[in-house]
Amino acid sequence: MSQQKPPKNGFKNAAILTGIAFEMGIIIYLSVQGGKWLDAQYQNEKNIFTVIATLLGVAISIWVVLQQLKRIKY
């Protein structure tokens, strides 16, 4: 029987994936805070800027994740 070799870049890939999770969280958090700030500045009671900024932050974070996943070597 042949033995399976551990992946060469296992620890590097794990570190990259952990970093991606933190980046997603930071991007979404900052976009929510920016939306709240805009709502406070324009005295908007319906929080429309928060909703728009949050959706934009999620879209940007997904795009960043996809770009970084392309760089991971298996």
Automatic annotation (TrEMBL):
Organism: Flagellimonas alvinocaridis
Regions that span the bilayer: 12-32, 47-66
Record-linked Pfam families: ATPase_gene1
Domain of life the protein comes from: Bacteria
Keywords: Membrane, Transmembrane, Transmembrane helix
Name this polypeptide is given: AtpZ/AtpI family protein
